[in-house]
Amino acid sequence: MIIAIDGPAAAGKGTLAQNLAKHFKYAFLDTGRLYRAVGFAVLEQNQDPSDPYYAITCAKKFDPKNINSILKNPLLREEATGNAASKVAVIPEVRAALLDLQRDFAEHPFFEDGTSAKGAVLDGRDIGTVVCPNAEIKFFVTASAEVRANRRFKELNDAGKIASYEKILQDIKERDFRDSNRSSAPLKPAEDAYILDTSNLNATQAFQKALDLISQNHL
Ligand code: C5P
Questions:
Q1: Which of 41, 50, 85, 108 is the most buried (most CB within 10 A)?
Q2: Helix (H) or strand (E) holding 28
Q3: Which residues of the chain have pLDDT under 50?
């Protein structure tokens, strides 16, 4: 069983994916972290994430056996890493280098301790359209740019970080534009995805709505 969850930044797809994975006892992969790890590796070399040479080299160095430890790096959560990720993600060879890894996980999901799972939840931008077009259940989680910027702003504020709402909103809009308008695997809902607008829903309500859709149509 594969559950594919796509959507723009800060729409709530990560929280929903983790809640569904926990509920069904499936393994979870945040595919954005793969792109973040590549963007981070390029930034660490003081190079430009839009430069295909460095981005492709870093993406090809990815060792699937080390995936858990690489993805745990807390610096991957930084806003600068997210922006770098969305720049490397435009490059088709970077996407190609990360594709098998994601498909392998979907087909043979495993938990952090290495034990195998009977299902997988993957979240990203192209899971339902490109990575797992045959996923049994697909969600496209979205919310207005203003609501998403406000959530990010609160998250950063709660973590004691100084942030500007205007700058976050601008970054989110730029990232949406880059993710939606790239030629390779652009952000868009799969034709058979349930659209879940979380603008007026909290995490619990979004989870409940997703569970209702699954139990009405798939169980
Ligand atoms: O989801 P997250 O914000 O961590 O993703 C960072 C960036 O990685 C996104 O803005 C997007 O450009 C890229 N990404 C992607 N395809 C995925 C997951 C993430 O292009 N499946």
A1: 85
A2: strand 27-30
A3: none
User: pLDDT tens digits for 104-147?
Assistant: 999 999 998 889 999 999 999 999 999 999 999 999 999 999 99
* pTM (two decimals): 0.95
Please give the distance, rounded to the nearest whole angstrom, from the Cα atom of residue 84 to the centre of ligand 1.
Answer: 10
Spatial distance between the Cα atoms of 15 and 96, rounded to a whole number of angstroms: 26
**Alpha-carbon distance 146 to 10, whole Å?**
10
Entry field: residues in the chain = 219
Q: How many beta carbons lie within 10 A of that of residue 28, not counting itself? A: 23
CA 3 to chain centre: 13
User: Atom 15 of ligand 1 has which residue's CA nearest to it?
Assistant: 125
**Cα→Cα distances 169→54, 79, 148, 163, 182, Å:** 28, 12, 8, 11, 20
In the chain, what's the furthest Cα-to-Cα distance?
50
Q: Which atom of ligand 1 is nearest to the CA of 36?
A: 6
Cα distances (Å, whole numbers) of residue 70 to 30, 130, 145, 173, 205:
12, 24, 30, 28, 32
Residue type, 13: K
